Amino acid sequence: MAILIKNIHTLVTCNDQDQILKNVDLLIDGHQIRAVGKQLTYDGPHEVIDGSSKLAIPGLVNTHHHLYQTLFRGLSEVQGMPLFSWLINLYEFWKHLTPDAVYYGSQVGFAELLRTGCTLTTDHHYVFPKGQPATLIDSQIQAAQEIGIRFHPTRGSMSLGKSKGGLPPDEVVQTEDEILKDSQRLIETYHDPSPFAMTRLSLAPCSPFSVSKDLMIQARELARSTGTGVMLHTHLAETMDEEKFCLEFYGRRPVELMEEIEWIGPDVWFAHAIHLSDREIKVLANSGVAHCPSSNMKLGSGICRTSELIKAGVKLGIAVDGSASNDGSNMWEEVRRAYLLNHLRYADAGLSAYETVKAATRGGAEVLGRNDTGILQEGKAADLALINLEDVAFAGCHDPLVSMVCCGNTSIVDTTIVNGRIVVREGQLITVDPEDIRVKAHKVSQEMVEKERRSKS
After folding, report:
1. Do 334 and 308 belong to one domain?
2. What Gene3D superfamilies does the database record attribute to this sequence (predicted)?
3. Residue 440 covered by a domain
4. How many domains, the chain?
5. Are residues 53 and 65 both part of a single domain?
6. In the structure, what pLDDT confidence band is assigned to residue 119 with cuts at 50, 70 and 90?
7. What is the DSSP pairing of strand 118-125 with strand 46-50?
8. Which pLDDT band holds residue 123 (cuts at 50, 70, 90)?
9. Which residues neighbour 252 within 8 Å (Cβ) at sequence distance 6 or greater?
């Protein structure tokens, strides 16, 4: 059924003219936005939404996540640790992952994202414990299809176990042949390069300290040989520990390693990209970066040079990162933190509220290689969020966009529409039962954590 949103208070287009429109209508027909303008009408069955008290923005785009980590939040064993110590301790819990855990962990993350205005998310799943099925990505895709979110899963991987000089234990790594074979299977089964696709695949060796250089090269060759827009993703330049590892193990800084193995270009995006030289920022000009403010703050990793990346032509998106390093999947809150962290670094030369929202919407879509979403204009995907300005948190606010970024005591949107389908209405997820997800996810989570704690007692 078509949807006509009438008399929208403020509509942020993020189009090429950076238009912010007042008191306009938006018509959705099928998967697309059919029109934006005054006094629109539609012949045929349609739902009318009153937009007179609403701020409309393109759906937020989450450019980096580890959905399974929603089941490992708030673990006392890892609080206050930097990245490497945090990972070494968490690997011991993650080795108990099952398909059910991946499925319900994904549902939890998707539910949080949708309720906070996110319409497109990627995920970086790289933990495949020995003895478990290799179809964990399939479980994520099933969860995404059921809940109704646009999804870019990545086939993550770890091949460099502790016995070979890497960071992860051997129980959670795979051989390169296993990884590449399953990567090919997933691309052939799920990757959809067509406009308005709900599922697209990328290949994502985890990080320079958990995969071999050879695997990075083979993943690059596989992705680019498809000719269907399969992208590449990895963690990069997140901490000084990573930089030290790369210098000792490869004789290269992280970005220098990416240059050597030809992992630079418009089909590549990196998570974090904090510790960069001026030269390296220029090197990344054709690539993308997923900025993860909450994770970087919690793990004490550093502050991303966001303004300088944008000025250099790097595609910048915003991301929640894994929920065990955040600890939420709240995209609206991540926008606020990105704005504040940017101003902590750049003061009055920092990004405006609009520029931050644009990075979280159109910017994120561009990072993920999409030009069919992230913009509210005719012909683009019907992916958007409506925020109710008639809330006490916005009383006294005079600019709706600044208010969204800087004010508010909740991050729950009024309405989320994905691919022309309402999935959140009046703040409530309507495609699945969130209480059922909560109960089942928490049960699976408790079982895994208690299993590991018992093994150490």
Report:
1. yes
2. Metal-dependent hydrolases, Urease, subunit C, domain 1
3. no
4. 2
5. no
6. very high
7. unpaired
8. very high
9. 246, 260
**C-alpha torsion sign, points 25, 27, 32, 36:** negative
Give backbone dihedrals phi and psi of 15, rounded to 5 degrees, phi first: -80, -175
Name the pTM for this structure: 0.97
Which two three-digit tokens encode residue 63? Answer: 């450019």
The parent domain of residue 67 ranges over: 60-367
Structure-block tokens of residue 429: 């997820």
Spatial neighbors of 332 by CB under 8 A, at least 6 apart, are 60, 116, 117, 404, 411, 413
- 257 confidence band (pLDDT: 50, 70, 90): very high
Which amino acid, one-letter code, is at 407? Answer: C
Mean pLDDT of 342-348: 96
Q: Which residue has the tokens 């030809």?
A: 262
Q: Rounded CA gap, 284 and 312, in Å?
A: 8
Say if 315 falls within a structural domain.
yes
Torsions phi, psi of 118, nearest 5?
Answer: -85, 130
- The answer on pLDDT for 409 being more than 90 is no
Judge whether 88 and 45 are in contact, CB under 8 Å: no
pLDDT above 80 for 434: yes
Check residue 403 and give left, alpha or beta (phi > 0: left; psi -120 to 50: alpha): alpha
Tell me, yes or no, whether 302 and 412 share the same domain. Answer: no
What percent of the chain stands above pLDDT 90?
95
Residue 385 counted as domain residue:
yes
If you search the block for the tokens 């709900």, which residue do you land on?
Answer: 198
**Can you spell out the DSSP letters for 72-116?**
GTT-GGGTT--HHHHHHHHHHHHTT--HHHHHHHHHHHHHHHHHT
- Non-local (6+) Cβ contacts of 103 within 8 A are 139, 140, 142, 143
For the segment 281-328, what is each residue's pLDDT rounded down to a tens digit?
999 999 999 999 999 999 999 999 999 999 999 999 999 999 888 999
Are 6 and 99 found together in one domain? no
374, part of any domain: no
Cis peptide before 372 (omega within 30 of 0): no
